[in-house]
Every structure is written in structure tokens, then in C-alpha cells.
Amino acid sequence: MALPENPIMFANNPLDRAGHLRGDEQWLAGQFASDTALLVPMWRLAPLVLPEIAPGEGRDVGWLPRAAFGDQLRPDSLVVFLGLNRRGKPLFAVDISHMSNPEDMGPFKGLGVFEDLRALAAIGDMPRTELAILAQAKGMLDWNMRHGFCAQCGQASEIKEGGYKRICGACQSEHFPRTDPVVIMLATHGDDCLIGRQKGWPENMFSALAGFMEPGETIEEAVARELMEEAGIEINSVSYIGTQPWPFPGSLMIGCMAEAQTREINMGDDELEDAKWVSRADVQSSMAGNGPLGVPPEMAIAFQLMKAFGKGR
Ligand SMILES: [Zn+2]
């Protein structure tokens, strides 16, 4: 892929998802049976992470050959296909949630730890491309685990195409993995931008406002609605900054800037504990760690929005 390097966490997934091949059951079975296949075990949606070889070198995803799973790879194991890496090796994620304590018992004992993806991304001690693959693995397993039954008739559905489709055995409905769009935005007015905070966040931490898109809405309309609902701000234009896969459990964050027409804040829907306008200078100094605000972690697209604003967007 010839896209430029993207600073957004969970972007830059390097795999060839082989969408034109994975529908062929024989091909997929052959890839899974192949000695070159690499599988990451995921326990309750947390991937296996291997320790550093030497201090400072960073940790690795627990990509294992099929044989390393022993009898924990069962005929009914939930397995999703992730894609082919640049060496053509097929990568899969396997759910091992049935195990009670895989770090201390069974075939994965002593190999490493099963770590929550959000925590892994916050620590950031593995390559970004690997974190992007884990985001895909988490999103895919999560969706398949929550969609074992047909939304149309309630009967059990069956996994197809490596997890990219489920088919209902009773009514033949097809179901596809969902991505739920969320708009996240900074309203700007001259040299100020609008930020808010929710109850329970770390003290003094502020971030961009956000909300789920609704059916029948454009991105621009969702941005305008959310800013009106949460802060009473009217806007007159929206520009797009970037998107972030956010598999908690299945969102796509759509990062935008919005030019505000009004400045008076009116927190209507109780979603926010506080909202305020802050200057570009305060955003810049806070991003540098010596300003008046707590800012979101670097892994959040809100961080990239505030960074872009600090740089003059
Ligand atoms: Zn059905």
C-alpha cells in the first residue's frame, strides 16, 4: 500500500486482507493448515504479548505456529483470518477464552501475558503496525463473539469467509462485521477551540467532543448536531482531519474541525461535566506538558485534533 505513514494509533495496518481469496473455503482451510500460518491467541479479547528479548527492544505480539496451541485449538474454536503479511504468511486470531488461566496453565504457560489492547496502545512498546493488526483482530473476534445469533430470526448463525460474514442456517440472512461511526470534533472560533470533559476523567483533563452518528445523517450534520446538543454551539462548516479504527467494541472515530458561528456555551444533554473555549497558546503549551490543561493520551485521535489545532488548523 502506498499510503503515507499515518500518526493515528491503529492506522497503518500492513496486511493484505486477501478479500478476493478468503471467500474460497478451500483456500482458507489450506492457509490455516499451512506450516507457515501464524496465530495469535486472544484470551477474553486480550492478545498474547511476548516479553522483550533485551531491555528497550520492545515487546512482540505472540504469533505462534498452530502446533503451539496443543489441544486448546478445538474444532469449535473461533478463528478469524487477518490477512497475509509481506512474506505471504497467513495470520489468524484465535479465541481461547474458555481457558481459566492461560498465563499459568496449559500450552501458553510462561510465554508472556495477555494484555488489554487499550493498555498496550497506551504503553506503546511494540510497532504501530502490530497494534493496527491487533485492533483488527480485537474488532473481528469481538463482533463474531457478539453475533452468534441471527438478528433477523434469532437462530444460530455460522461463521464464513474467515469471520467477515455470518450466515443464518435457518433464514439464510447474511450478516457482516459492523463498524459504528463516531464523530469527534473540535469547534474553533478564531484562535480558540472548544473542549469538554466528562465526569470521572482524570482531574483537569479536557478533550474533543464526540458522539455516535445516527442513521440518515451526514458526517457534517452529526458534527453540527452533537456540538449543539452537548454545548449549544452553532457551526457553519466542517473539515475532515482523519479517521481511527477504535475496536472498543466496534467504532470508527471520524476526526473533524468545525468552524463555530456562536461562542455561548450551553451544556444541554448532561453528557459533559464542563466545556470551555481555550486559546491556541494554551493548547500548544498543554500539549508540550507545561500548560494549564490535561490533554488526551497520544493514542486518542482527540490528541491529533488538538495537535493539528495547535499547529494552526
Ligand atoms: Zn435467521
Note down, in words, how this protein is organized.
- It is built from six helices and 15 strands.
- The chain has 313 residues and is of the alpha+beta class.
- The strands form three sheets. Strands 1, 2, 3, 4, 5 and 6 form a six-stranded mixed beta sheet that branches.
- Strand 4 and strand 5 form a beta hairpin.
- Bound molecules: zinc ion (ZN).
- Zinc ion binds next to loops.
Summarize the structure.
With 313 residues, this protein is an alpha+beta fold. It contains 6 helices and 15 strands. It folds into 3 domains: 1-145, Nucleoside Triphosphate Pyrophosphohydrolase; 147-177, no CATH class; 180-310, Nucleoside Triphosphate Pyrophosphohydrolase (Alpha-Beta Complex), CATH 3.90.79.
How many E strands?
A: 15
- Counting H and I runs of at least 4 residues, what is the number of helices? 6
- What is the overall silhouette? globular
Radius of gyration: 22 Å
Q: Beta fraction of the residues?
A: 25-35%
Note poorly predicted spans.
none
Mean pLDDT across residues: 96
SSE layout:
Blueprint: H1 25-33, E1 38-43, E2 46-50, E3 60-61, E4 79-84, E5 90-95, E6 113-114, H2 117-123, H3 128-146, E7 157-160, E8 165-168, E9 174-175, E10 180-189, E11 192-197, E12 209-212, H4 219-231, E13 235-246, E14 251-260, E15 274-279, H5 280-287, H6 301-310
Parallel strand pairs: 1-5, 10-14
Antiparallel strand pairs: 1-2, 2-3, 2-6, 4-5, 7-8, 8-9, 10-11, 10-12, 11-15, 13-14
Helix pairs in contact: 5-6
